[in-house]
Amino acid sequence: MATKGVKSRIASVKNIQKITRAMEMVAAARLRKAEQRVEQLRDYAGAVRRMTRQAAEAAGNIPNVPLLSERESENTVGILLFTGDRGLAGAFNSQIVRAGVRAAAELQGQGRDIVWFAVGRRGVSSLRFRGNDPEGAFEGFTDRPSYADAREIASDLIAAYVDGKVDRVDLFYNRYVSAMSQTVTRETLLPLQQATILEAMEQAAEEQPDSGHSALVEYEPEPDAILERLVPAYVEISVFRALLESTASEHGARMTAMRNASENASEVISDLTLQMNRERQAEITQEIMEVVAGAESLV
Description:
- The protein is an alpha/beta fold.
- It is 64% helix and 13% strand.
- It has one domain (26-255): Pyruvate Kinase, Chain: A, domain 1, CATH 3.40.1380.10.
- The chain has a five-stranded mixed β-sheet, sandwiched between helices.
- It starts with a helix and ends with a helix.
């Protein structure tokens, strides 16, 4: 009976291993596509940042654009968490929630109020479980987000900032480094002050060194009008990039988690097989002893 029970456990572990290997292969295929989307967006995002910086410099003084104006006091901070719709991805979801909750506790200790936003079912459910019902909940697209999804999120964040519901918006997402490594990143999205634009452009310039050629830019319409259009696009691009970084990180984390699960299953199968062989040997030895004892009793 003991041997039969071990055989059943081995069969169960093998079935689980088949599932984890299949999930690893699916995650690997999706990761390759997500990596391509992240790489392609980085160039586009850099171009938008360059245009925004140039328009801001041409405008001279920052025009009266609400998203560029810094509030005198930051009484209310909006926190947007980027998580996934599904689990089985290691610490991918939990580390974002922990980082957001820890930052919220620090801000509340400073006397500030928190307004929550969350992308992904895991983040939404975790916040609600903690009694923090998010102002904005965005679910159902984290496997392959579109620009329309980013526009919807950005629109809600811009509306909350312009209407005075929040004085600042911070993003928490996993920045993709590799399939084995994702970094929890915190960025301030709003307000988009001039220093923030220039800082982003300096980083983009480091990634793409200047070729040494410069061109005189003429604006039609005026830089102020162009900047008013570019700033919302800048917000949308920033949200979209965070979405793609988070998606690639999720697929990488899930692939790694499923690979580890498959390797652990192999170790469990090996241990159970060894246990089964020992029990089978013990049963055979017991049967031989019973036969010998029976034979001796007949002598």
